[in-house]
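> forwarded from #structure-qc
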């Protein structure tokens, strides 16, 4: 399994504080049958710099080296805050895509959505990038924006639900929102969004989603689509672990 959204690089955002905690998180994901971890630290406008991208790459290399051949492969990515100028930052190499594909993971605001929310997403689409909205079901404005989210999905945006949302780890309202997306055929990806103090919930989320949309569709969400998102990186990192 590929986990496309988790915070496992130490000392760079609200993920692990040190390498020992980072290794523990990676081993927890290994116990969830995760073979490839996409490290997605937060990127906000004040952090859109080539230097930060380089720091994330270095953190991924250090983590992969310590995990060795027995650990999950590590791929560098990012969870990008939605503000003006994202497309230009991507083109300049100041924020990362996921793997070697054309997908970018965008953080759906948990509170108020910025005025530029839809505009920036459609600029990315027009430039040939594939936006993935992380955890839209956890937005406090979900009911207001749900119709718009599904409309954006029809234009090419992908929706990534947090595994814990499907099993109630974020409360009944978030679980209901995730189930509503499932009923609308609106879940493209499920990922852990793992942080210290959270459970991955991937093993329990798979049967929960299977009951909602069927095993074949759940397989696509959990296994097939993540491989497509990463492009060639899944193959590369599974062989050299870097």
């Amino acid at each position: 399994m590929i986990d496309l959204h988790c915070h496992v690089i130490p000392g760079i955002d609200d993920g692990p504080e040190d390498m020992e905690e980072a290794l523990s998180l990676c081993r927890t994901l290994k116990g969830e049958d995760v073979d490839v971890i996409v490290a997605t630290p937060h990127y906000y406008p004040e952090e859109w710099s080539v230097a930060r991208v380089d720091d994330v790459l270095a953190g991924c290399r250090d983590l992969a080296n310590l995990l060795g051949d027995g650990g999950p492969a590590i791929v560098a990515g990012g969870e990008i805050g939605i503000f003006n100028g994202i497309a230009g930052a991507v083109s300049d190499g100041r924020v990362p895509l996921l793997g070697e594909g054309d997908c970018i993971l965008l953080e759906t605001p948990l509170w108020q959505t910025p005025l530029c929310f839809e505009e920036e997403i459609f600029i990315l689409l027009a430039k040939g990038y594939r936006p993935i909205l992380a955890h839209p079901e956890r937005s406090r404005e979900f009911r207001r924006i749900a119709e718009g989210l599904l409309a954006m999905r029809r234009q090419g945006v992908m929706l990534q639900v947090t595994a814990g949302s499907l099993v109630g780890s974020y409360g009944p309202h978030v679980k209901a929102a995730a189930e509503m997306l499932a009923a609308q055929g609106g879940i493209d990806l499920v990922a852990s969004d793992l942080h210290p103090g959270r459970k991955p919930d991937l093993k329990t989320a798979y049967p929960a989603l299977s009951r909602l949309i069927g095993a074949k569709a759940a397989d696509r969400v959990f296994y097939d689509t993540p491989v497509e998102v990463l492009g060639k990186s899944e193959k590369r990192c599974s062989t050299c672990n870097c």
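QC bot note: The beta strands are 2-6, 36-39, 42-43, 73-76, 79-81, 103-107, 130-134, 158-162, 189-191. Residues 233-242 have pLDDT under 50 and may be disordered.
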